[in-house]
Design a protein that fits this description.
Blueprint (H helix, E strand, L loop, with lengths): L1 E6 L7 H8 L5 E4 L8 E5 L2 E5 L11 E4 L4 E2 L1 H14 L4 E5 L3 E2 L2 H14 L11 H10 L11 H14 L12 H18 L3 E2 L1 H10 L4 E8 L21 H6 L8 E7 L2 E3 L13 H7 L11 E3 L1 E2 H11 L3 E5 L1 H4 L4 E10 L2 E2 L7 H6 E9 L7 H7 L6 H14 L2 E6 L7 E3 L5
Bound molecules: inosinic acid and magnesium ion.
Inosinic acid binds next to helix 4 and strand 10.
Length: 426
């Protein structure tokens, strides 16, 4: 079985939790985009594990692969691997020779670019993601394979510095000694991670040929996709299903199942249009603990948005849905769901592209009564769907009817156990 799991909103849908839950059925889990801008939380028997670079399948699968589509901060990776090895000594880690390397200079550039953007400031995670992808596409980027060659690193750092000299004015990188230190530090981190380097496209293909189950894990969410998200308020990589091929080298033709994860409401970090935003979203924010795993920033909160969800379902060609945080949403007395976008009184049948259109956008909602606290958690876990509160079932069935997809995984709490499955996952 070859599957891909993706976020269908603005990131933070709870993919980490769902990936961990389903990864027991997969030998390999492969990440194919993004870097440490991602924050994936996994909770097992009350113990929390946070992943930024390593795939969140690491606790249950045998092998994790960081694909060429990723941008990797070697310092953060070393820390994350050390931590992971404490609870999972035998995990096999492979990193693509072609993955790009984030340096401290890229993080500095990330901040400088945000200062210059002013009105169209994105609110990035400051993890150096954008500038590293810029260098990748400018063909000046540093790849993992380069970390074994001091001369190449030195040459690339100088090239990047010279191309971005204007932006780096006033920073420590004007000092050649600082750039030299960075080269040394990259070499030393390179030495400690080189043992994980591989031509991972071959590893994945060989595992596929030998009949292994492979799960591809997308980072961020569909609405942050560089091409189809709400540009320019997006991340610098493709976050849709198709990216798994360019980001890992594995053919999209061999993917059996696309799993889309969405939260029962919506959240977003960073700037940009947010059609179903609740202007005073603090109740749900606090109930759901909606603060960034990576940055600690309070997340913006909104209702579930069906036009948006239908768009990302279409763009990913989703087979099966997973919903998270239904327990949290149910605590609200009245729940709203966005069903329709209209502009000047007319329903629109596309996802808006021009920022001015979002200003004119009118969102229609339907309301549902909440279902309160879940008090029969153990019954639900042992007996499944039938035990769910009636109001919750109505809400779930409404979403299934509107999207035409089944919700096969329902998450009712952060712990791995608080998950029930339906149909194909049984
Ligand atoms: P960048 O990826 O750091 O360049 O940030 C670009 C935009 O994507 C900002 O709005 C970030 O808040 C958002 N973003 C990036 N990664 C994530 C994520 O994993 N979860 C939620 N938002 C993210
Ligand atoms: Mg996150």
């Amino acid at each position: 079985m070859i599957s891909v799991i993706l976020g269908l909103q603005f990131g933070d849908e709870g993919k980490g939790k769902i990936t961990d839950f389903i990864s027991k059925d997969y030998d390999d889990v492969v990440r194919f985009n993004g870097g440490s801008n991602a924050g994936h939380t996994v909770v097992i028997n009350g113990e929390k594990f946070k992943f930024h670079l390593v795939p969140s399948g690491a606790m249950q699968s045998n092998r994790v692969i960081l694909g060429n589509g990723m941008v990797i901060d070697p310092e953060e990776l070393v820390d994350e691997i050390d931590l992971l090895k404490k609870s999972k000594k035998n995990i096999d880690i492979k990193i693509s020779a072609g993955a790009h390397i984030v340096t401290k200079m890229h993080k500095c550039l990330d901040k400088k670019e945000e200062e210059i953007r002013s009105k169209l400031n994105i609110g990035t995670t400051s993890k150096g993601i954008g500038p590293t992808y810029e260098d990748k596409y400018a063909r000046t980027g540093i790849r993992l394979i380069d970390l074994s060659n001091t001369e190449i690193i030195r040459d690339k750092i100088e090239t990047i510095y010279n191309m971005k000299r204007q932006l780096l004015k006033g920073s420590i990188y004007e000092n050649p000694e600082e750039r030299g230190k960075m080269v040394e530090s990259l070499c030393s981190f390179g030495n400690s991670i080189m043992k994980y380097m591989d031509y991972t496209e071959n590893v994945i293909y060989n595992d596929y040929r030998s009949g292994k189950n492979i799960l591809f894990e997308g980072a961020q969410g569909g609405m942050l996709d560089i091409d189809f998200g709400i540009y320019p308020f997006v991340t610098s990589s493709n976050t849709l299903a198709g990216a798994l091929s360019t980001g890992s080298g594995f053919s999209f033709r061999k993917v059996d199942r696309v799993i889309g994860v969405f939260k029962a409401y919506t959240s977003k970090v960073g700037a940009g249009p947010f059609p179903s935003e609740i202007l005073n979203g603090s109740t749900l924010r606090d109930l759901g603990g909606e603060y960034g795993t990576t940055t600690g920033r309070p997340r913006r909160i909104g209702w579930l948005d069906l036009p948006l969800l239908k768009y990302t379902i279409m763009m990913n060609d989703v087979d099966s849905l997973a919903i998270t945080k239904v327990d949290i949403l149910g605590k609200m007395k009245t729940i709203k769901v966005a069903t329709k976008y209209t502009i000047d009184g007319k329903e629109i049948d596309y996802f808006p592209r021009r920022l001015e259109e979002f200003d004119k956008l009118h969102v229609d909602y339907v309301e549902f009564p909440g279902w309160g606290d879940i008090t029969n958690g153990e019954d639900i876990i042992s007996k499944g769907y039938q035990e769910l509160p009636e109001n919750m079932k109505k809400f779930l069935e409404f979403i299934e009817g509107e999207t035409g997809k089944t919700i096969d995984i329902i998450s009712l709490g952060e712990d791995r156990r608080m998950t029930i499955t339906k149909q194909i996952f049984n």
